[in-house]
Amino acid sequence: MLICPICKNQLIKNERVYVCANTHSFDISKYGHTNLLLSNQKNSKFPGDNKEMVMSRKKFLEKGYYNGISNTVNELLEEHLKFSEKEIQKKRLNILDIGCGEGYYTNNLKKYFSSKNIETDIIGIDISKEAIISASKSYKEIEWFVGSATNLPIESSSLNLILCMFSKIDSKENFRTLKTNGKLAIVSTGENHLVEMKETLYEKVKKDFYLPKDDPALSNFKHIQSMTCSYQVDIKEKESISNLFNMTPYRWRTPEDGIKRLYTLETLFTTVEVTIDIFEKI
Fold first, then answer.
1. How many CB atoms lie within 10 A of CB 192?
2. Measuring CA to CA, which residue among 277, 271, 65, 83 is closest to residue 181?
3. Residue 123 falls in which region: left (phi positive, over 0), alpha (psi -120 to 50) or beta
């Protein structure tokens, strides 16, 4: 399933290293992850989320506030993978989580499929080294790689499922790596996602959201289904309020007075809303 990011030959795992036929080698770190991101694929010296953002997201997600998202995604994916039941019986499903972050959703998906007796080979890829280190420390049954969504180190037509949770989408690479009838699941923030938090941060709230089904870049896929997952959470810990803010893009574009207003809150009652879109390679 893995290919060398340099020459595109298949990568073979040999103890603590991945090697291709041209002897390009990539060591498996002491944490268990492998760096397959080439220097010319970086848009900065340290691309992706930094350590502070990764730890904020990890601490917040472990409180369970986004369990509703994870559970809904997993159940919907199982529903659509029933169309490949014969393949499930014959072999393991190959799954890629692009922009996997610290691995919370990836690990939940693997555990969910295991509980349904669905065998999987799951790979998590993120451009953030800090995110992948965190994932590899926490979840040892999944293979973790630092890599680029626009240059996936994955064989063509090798994947049954690609999951993109709030991450960069490269439709050409997704199409290339999926098998025929393979599924692409895109999870994006909904119109009302964290609207109450945004009303605290900003005097005027803009409801900007992405609709994958209307994205012309994804016209090479067949759109199968859209589902909205929406519920409300009551965040009772000041640390969790801070972690939620720090794991979002709002931390970079919020005025100081808005941040002060948020940090004075003892609790935050806010909406969680995401859209799940399922596409198929035909």
1. 17
2. 83
3. beta
Query: For the chain, what are the domain ranges?
Result: 31-191+206-230+273-280
Determine contact, residues 92/118, Cβ cutoff 8 Å. no
Residue 91 — pLDDT band, cuts 50, 70, 90? low
Question: Which position has the higher pLDDT, 206 or 184?
Answer: 184
Q: Is 139 helix (H, G, I), strand (E, B) or coil?
A: coil
CATH topology of domain 31-191+206-230+273-280: Rossmann fold (3.40.50)
Radius of gyration of the chain (CA): 19
Name the pLDDT band for 42 (thresholds 50, 70, 90).
confident
Residue 96 and residue 125 in contact, taking contact as beta carbons nearer than 8 Å: yes
Measured CA to CA, the distance from residue 236 to residue 245 in angstroms comes to 14
User: What does the alpha-carbon distance between residue 124 and residue 132 come to, in Å, rounded to a whole number?
Assistant: 8
For the cut 90, the answer to whether the pLDDT of residue 273 exceeds it is yes
| Whole-number Å distance between alpha carbons of 225 and 202 | 33
Q: Under a CB-based contact definition with an 8 Å cutoff, are residues 146 and 126 in contact? A: yes
- The 10s digit of each residue's pLDDT in 173-199 is 999 999 999 999 999 999 999 999 999
